[in-house]
Amino acid sequence: MSPLPPDHVQDLQEGILRYLADHPDAADTCEGIEAWWLGGGRGDACGDELRLALEALIRRRVLMREILPGGAVIYRGAQAQDVARIEPERQP
Questions:
Q1: Are 37 and 50 in contact (CB under 8 A)?
Q2: What is the pLDDT of residues 32-83, one digit of tens each?
Q3: What strands, in cross-sheet order, belong to the sheet with 73-77?
Q4: What's the CA gap between 71 and 63, in Å, rounded?
Q5: Cβ atoms within 10 Å, residue 42
């Protein structure tokens, strides 16, 4: 398996940040983020690149991961009021 292209992961992060800037109270599963926030599909799968983008935003404290009582995992802006000011992380 070849490494994932960092530019695409970065593009996904930027798309998530744009969505949160417009919808600061949004919260969704990985599949919902793929389908609704990024407009990329049916929302029935969460790819490796999107998972990497979500994890990078969690490490940067832009997103929070929440596990619901039934076990579903949702993601939401960690500091919704500040998301519009956060710059995407650039890969060297």
A1: no
A2: 999 999 987 665 668 899 999 999 999 999 999 999 999 999 999 986 444 4
A3: 27-28, 73-77, 63-67
A4: 18
A5: 8
The predicted structure's pLDDT at residue 44: 61
Domains of the chain: 6-82 (1.10.10.10)
Tokens of 65: 């991961």
Gyration radius (Cα) of the chain, Å: 13
- Quick one: DSSP state of residue 20? H
Instruction: Write the DSSP string, 49-80.
Output: HHHHHHHHHHHTTSEEEEE-TTS-EEEEETTG
Instruction: List the one residue out of 47, 20, 21, 18 whose CA is nearest residue 34.
Output: 47
Which residues, in sequence order, are bridge partners of residue 67? 73
pLDDT band at 7 (very low <50, low <70, confident <90, very high): confident
| Beta-bridge partners for 75 | 28, 65
